[in-house]
Structure prediction request, 694 residues.
Amino acid sequence: MQPPSSPVSPIQYSAVTDREFSRSPEIEHDSITPAKTQARAIVVTEQKRDGSDDGSGRYDSKPARPHFIWWYETTCCFLAVGALVGTVAMVWSFDHRPLPHWPYELSINTFIAAFSVLLKTSAGLVLAESISHIKWTELKQPRSLRSFTVHDDASRGPWGAFALLWNDKGRHISSLGALIIILILFMEPFTQQIVSFYDCVEVDRLETGKIPRTNFYVQETGFNMGGASNVPWALRNSINQGLFATNKPQLDISCDSGNCTFSGTYSSLAFCSVCKDISSELVSEPWPNPRNITPVPNQFRYPNMTLRIRPGAQSNLSLALPAGEGMVEETRRTLVAQGFPMIDVIRSLDNKNYVAHSCNVSACMQTYEAMVRSSKLEETVVDEHLIPRSTEFGYYRVADLECIQESKKQQLSEMGYNLEANPRWLPYNVSVFYNVTEERNTFQGSCQYVPADKVDKFCDKNKRKIANKYLSLSDDAAQIVPADCVYSMSDTAGNTLYTSVFRDLFKGELLERGTSNPPALFGPEPLMAIRHAGSGNGTLKDMSDLMRNISNSLTTYVRQHGNVNMSNPMLGTVTRNTVCIRVQWPWVAFSAAIVLLTLVFFLYVVVKARGDQAELRRAWETEGVHAPFYDFKSSALALLFHGLDDDSRRQLIDVGSTNRTAEMAKRSKDVKIQLVATERGWKLATVGTHNGLS
Prediction:
């Protein structure tokens, strides 16, 4: 089967006479210039089978239209710019953000490396082709054959680029291309420095941190047959933990990652303790001689005075001091305490010194700042406020004025509340309960303090009276303060601690026996805890810290056992320890500089090469015949088909006969060549006389 016939016939050559091609090259001043001599050039045409001439890339009677020969390189320029933009866009989107988790364990450096390879390859091709084209366009004037070779080597790799820099010494634009080729060598290691990593935290959008708090606490207690209240064992245990345990009870927080942040402050019902030194309030009175005998000698430890609390307490608390050192059989009281109505302690420090402390553990409001770090709650109390007890209605209740608007505060002021004396925590007489059946909050309050001229505005005379004597507030007046801003604790929860726990817990005396140092102690364990609290020296700080341990333990219990419908936890943000990305923009600037220099170099080469080709073609034009364009660049075919012409090869036969590259390179220094037009298109022709070579 024969192949289909081509529409273009084989190339036909026809000699050009003086009339057809009036100028031919001649050597003038070591350069070849067209002259009106016998033609050395031959017109080359391609004839189609219909007899017409194509003239594309050949001498033609028509001026050839300029055509763009840089499509491939231009595409590579766009790829290089795209790789740079892709790198910048990617690292910018992850700057100071957590390290992404991509499939197949791909990392951000993988994509940076990919963009780097694309940029390096694209820019390298543009540079190689541009330098290769320069080696041809520069031959419009005679150039050293070595210069041609050096440019060719520079287009093939960094070593050739270094040789070009050394040869040109920066005098030619090709030196810039060679420099960029060398700089590209450092792109891969430098691009790996674009991102660095540091430890950071990542917000978990799917989880929420929670810290217990409560607005409403009613102690679950009853009364036995004897009338004594039954305090829940869990509550008693929390007191014992605060008194004896080294590791205090912790809140049951919710923080899945172990690291959570909580913005702002939050408040909760709590227990606070206040201790003061009452040593100055003690009264001393002589201890009578029980036998009415001659005073006992000083070597016996016999007490001679008593200390007791001032009248007004439910019972006196006395502690006797010894008169001096005695015998081993002596026994004396070193600490006495009572737990109702306050926790009072008198302690002997030595034979002449004593101290007395009085502490109160009561319901209060506490405001906190908190964070969770490494699964450990770091909570700081920023404000404390004791809640006054309403003896008439039996409750501890306050309203948080920071929760309400100024207009609501004005209404509270009209209702008779003293907002100046209570700028934030206002003693409040409106109770809030959650109606489980109706699933809503209910409000009930009395008009006990409402001025007479405001009764019609805030009170509802149709409602049942409170305690059979106070009008009830209207629904609107009772709801001035939202339920979330009202904090309430039942009277049994606050007062039962003393009547049912502290009364018996902190009661009794510690006895000191013997003369050993330290002497042996005997007595209840709670008083032992007081005796050895803190430094063991009986300071006010030691006592305050012990009572604070108890109140903190009670607070933990209350915050976790408040009314479930009125104990919204404090919500926070869950964070996870991870690795974040930091972009080092100076290293990005290196890649950007490579791209920018490549574009500048390429644009210059395109413009310069176009002008050089136009100048060369004009030099070889004759009337009616025009020289063709060429796009030789780095193609080996260009050198094979458009290398030295026959005359030049004959002149350089000695050079060509050697098979040693080093020898050819040495002799090429003395050879000058120039691009000329011949019967076989553009050719390289030697210029001048080459001693020893012809």
About this structure: The chain has 18 helices and 31 strands. Residues 199-286+301-428+481-575 form one domain.
